[in-house]
Amino acid sequence: MLKNWRLTINLLTPLAVKPPALDALLMWELSNRLGLNRSDELNLKQPESFMPEKLTRSVPLSQVKKCEHLPLCKKTIAGVDVFRCSDPIYRIEHEYHERQAKRFECDKMALMLRESERKSLLVASGPYKMRFVPIRCMLIPKVVYFFRGDKVEVNKLLKKVFAIGKHRNIGYGFVRCFEFDEVEEDYSVFASKVLMRSIPFIDDPTIEGARRSYGACKPPYWHPDNYMEILEPC
Amino acid sequence: MPKTHKIHMLLETMSPLTHMMGTNGNEALINREAVIYKGQIRHLPVISGNAIRHKLIREPGANFIIGACNLAGKMNIDQLNYLFNGGSLVESSVSRNIAKIANMQIVLPLYRLLGGCLKNQVVAGSLNVHRGMLICRENSERLSDILPEDFAIDSAIFPAERFIDQYQYTRGDAKKMRDIDFFAAVDELNAQIGEEKSNLMIFNGQTIVAGAMFYLGFVLNNVSDLELGALFHSLSRWNGFIGGQGSRGHGRCKISLIASDALEIAPLIMAYKEHIMGKKEEIKTWLAEAFPSKRKGKEDVNAEKLALDN
């Protein structure tokens, strides 16, 4: 049933970097399930031509299988279809940085190396660089999205989302729960005249809370093929 | 059939735990995360997910593979960097070799679980590790939300600061040992030659007291039984230390499983061990192909393999 919804993601642990867009999150999850995101279900017996393509920045979007059937309505703006879901809305309660350490433990490795490999190793730069990398953390109790779409299907896709943001593998952005509330008004793209998500650039002075920028307004947001002049909320 | 698993564990400190985030002067500071408790920001001790991933899973798992395949003393730096640190992207990622990734995922379930970086390709893993959350009053609400229903935390438990203590050590100065000889010390003073700098140093820091408990959680997305077995096998081979100053006895811990949807763990571990013992040659071949020595060309993979075999 297509209705207007407010989705609240309650977070358990600090979020690294920033929360994702809802359509990006759903597309990531759907791609995982269709086997398009990763080389998980590879079968060596298959000829290489049947193996799923791993999408990188250098692979044109036109060459890969499309994954655009999300349970969200679409709105066509300036000839581009954008999903009817708002950008993440959140309040940063506290911002700080933590550090991630990585080092090649030469003391433990020395005798595991073959004799010809036991030599001076540069650890100040290069592939074996010791790192103490700062991670920008934000304490955000909840992230809210408005969307128009099918709640049941969105919920199904979110069922296996345990964490959001970056560095999910080391405990950042773990999700406590998802809450859906039906809302009367559609705040997915515009709330009255206030812009709620990135859209292709249109010269409309009546739009409020928007600034002109350059980037993507549909997933995958990181892919250069999707870059264009946009209006983004500010 | 791949399944998603959630595993809940408890880590209990048996000796003071020093998992640090930095220093303030001579004092080492315990690693903390910010949480909101009763409308206020509190900084609570935490064990980083990165440390848990490495010390409890990657390191014991890598040691087992090296031991099982008799690879000690026969590897190159890139192979060790991959097994123990997850590797580094050092070549252009324009080209891809899916067969190489697939081979890795077949022969090394642990690295399919953890992910890693081949020379020209980042391979995602399937394991999400929770941060080690201190079981304390400020965390009780958060923990109650993620723990299974039978394991709710009592909100009357001690607050986090009650679990934090201090340690202090002194590094001795070998030169000062002579001062035990009183007459020699008096002579030294009289001769006014005692102006050399001393290496004597006092250093201190914060610790988590012995007996504190942390929640550990693992989420394994779409994994096979072999990967689940790899996780439990690595946990079973963990040496029991986490954090710094293990040489002084700090960071001795024990873990216990409190809830998991995998009912039988022993057969999973056995299956994983059998898999590794049965795929020794494939593991060696894969390592030699994926990380050939820098001085050799790609066509010398066989020679590399021969070195690993010997």
Task: Label this structure with key terms.
heterodimer; A: 234 residues; mainly beta; 2 domains; four-stranded antiparallel β-sheet; B: 310 residues; alpha+beta; seven-stranded antiparallel β-sheet; four-stranded mixed β-sheet; 13 strands; 35% helix; globular
Structure description:
The complex is a heterodimer of chains A (234) and B (310). Chain A has 234 residues and is mainly β. Chain A has two domains: 2-38 and 53-93 and 140-187, no CATH class; 96-135, no CATH class. Helices cover 11% and strands 32% of the residues of chain A. In chain A, the strands form five sheets. Chain A has a four-stranded antiparallel beta sheet with strand order 5-8-1-9. In chain A, strands 2-7-6 form a three-stranded antiparallel beta sheet, with no helix packed on it. The longest helix of chain A is centred in the N-terminal third of the chain and has 13 residues, at 22-34. Chain A is elongated. Chain B is an alpha+beta fold. Chain B folds into two domains: 3-163 and 209-301, no CATH class; 166-205, no CATH class. Chain B has helices at residues 49-68, 77-85, 98-107, 109-114, 140-146, 182-191, 225-236, 266-278, 280-290, 301-309, and strands at residues 3-13, 20-24, 27-30, 32-37, 40-47, 116-118, 121-123, 127-129, 132-134, 164-171, 201-208, 213-223, 253-260. In chain B, strand 2 and strand 3 form a beta hairpin. In chain B, helix 9 crosses helix 10. Chain B starts with a strand and ends with a helix. The model of chain B has no long low-confidence stretch (mean pLDDT 86). Classes of the chains: A mainly beta (234), B alpha+beta (310).
